[in-house]
Amino acid sequence: MKIAALQMVSTPRVEDNLARAAELVAQAAAQGAELVVLPEYFCLMGRQDRDKLAVAESAGHGPIQALLSGLARQHRLWLVGGTLPMALEGDPEHASNTSLVFGPDGTLAARYDKIHLFRYDDGERRYDEAATLRPGEQPVAFDATARDGTVHRVGLSVCYDLRFPELYRRLMQPPCSVLVVPAAFTWPTGQAHWELLLRARAVENQCYVIASAQGGRHENGRRTWGHSMVIDPWGTVLAVQDEGDGVVCAELDRAQLARVRTQLPALQHRRL
User: Fold this and answer.
1) Whether pTM exceeds 0.85
2) CATH at 255
3) How many CB atoms neighbour CB 54 within 10 A?
4) 87-98, pLDDT tens digit by residue?
5) Which of 159, 176, 207, 249 is catalytic?
6) 208, 179 contact by CB (below 8 A)
């Protein structure tokens, strides 16, 4: 099964971002990808944090969800829609940062609300997601059936979740074949920790990792780290793109997955 991480440099304009996302999904499909992952906030990198509230969609309604469903159906693939802001009933001051998954028939297959909210302050850059977001509560995984009939269990996570290994341990009950990490890592945190954390999650859980990132200088002045990549269960980086829009493709090899778990059965050796 071919898998793909899409990298974007999203703008403050939803329409432009949706058009670019559609182009990248089409490129991934043309390369044979059956599981495609967009980056966090592929639909909007606003000029200020509250911009996301103005475009937040209700479940089952809105142009962002319609596009994701249509692209999955058009290209007959599993599409993890990065994240988009979803409205919260009775709370117009906050949204959830939500990853929606659509199956090859265009129907909604899974929803994950980001659990861990990022806060950072180095004296120059300050971020506090809790000012506009409410956290999710439940880990989510789903089964993706490949065109050859093979079923792959896929665990969902988003960006800052990457720093919390206990989430991924929960997702490994039962074990996943692949973990996805749509993200918008900042330049300083990405430079220091992005690949390190991704490879650690792949090695300790002995599974593939698809990391789809925002990557470049955005119109709002923010610079994101990029380096979207696919990593195998041994921790080997199979493909990567440093900055700019693009498609990162690799093969999910069930034989390699089985080989790693058989040769070093660490998942069976857990005691805590």
Assistant:
1) yes
2) 3.60.110.10
3) 11
4) 999 999 999 999
5) 159
6) yes
